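Hello Y.,

Per our agreement to keep a running log of every chain we model this quarter, I'm adding this entry. I've kept the format consistent with earlier entries: sequence first, then predicted structure.
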Amino acid sequence: MPRLKALITGVTGFVGSHMAEYLLDRDVEVYGTVRWRSSMDNILHIADQLHLIECDMTDIVSVRRTLATATPDHIYHLAAQSFVPTSWTMPVATMETNVTGQINLFEACLSMGMNPMIQIACSSEEYGDVYPDEVPIKETNPLRPMSPYAVSKITQDMLGFQYHESYGLNVVRTRAFNHSGPRRGEVFVESNFAKQIASIEAGKQEPILWVGNLGAMRDYTDVRDMVRAYRLALTKGEPGDVYNIASGRAVSIQEVLEMLLARADVQIRVEQDPSRLRPSDVPVLIGDCSKFKRQTGWEPQIQIEETLKDLLDYWRGKIPAPKRICA
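Predicted structure for the entry above:
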């Protein structure tokens, strides 16, 4: 039998690189989109096993060329502007990247007569202003977005449903709650904390850790569990349907900070930086993942304590302490 072929848009990113690793370990032939300015750091160790294609998702000609080259059985659409605060300062760019990029992918499939299984990475941010009696959040919960990013993800989500209903595209929508682990971008809160700790330990930052809002509650899944879920979404999920992917356990950002500080090798003082506060923030996100578990049998395997340990060790490797010269 020929090898299964998968296309990962945004393969150089945090989730994309872990997705590529996971698929390669299962003998999948992996194609991935890159941009001319993409950093290759996350995939250097597997680059020789990947088929990399330069592609701008906002250019449909580029997308068609990518599909013609890859002819994928599965598509993991992970390319996105994924940082919520950036969506406040760049709402138009966020919409163009997230929405136009996905429309181009769908339209290219239709015009080329292709109908692979497509997973689109939606987000728990879509739920937004969740009321206390709505937790844990089910897929049927009202969507009350609190940021331009969340609006862009709702648009992706609804377009996935519409293209399935209108044209029969095999689109599976996943609403992932927070996920983290090694290679998480430094702009994201837990990774930023870990990087600051590693910088302080290495003597490259004064022993003050700067924070924003510590009261928000988040449901964390390890990225390595998340990519397992994405694969299952395409192999066992129903096209047209939507699934929450979450651990079902919520921790506050304060608790995340405390877990990381407990692993620090030095004493660190915590100070709030007003510039890290958002115009509005979702107070609590806890996911009900029972629908996805029933459909696929997925269960998270990695606890948040291990996720944060590996994240901190990742940054320690990136920011090593200076070597001491013995007399």
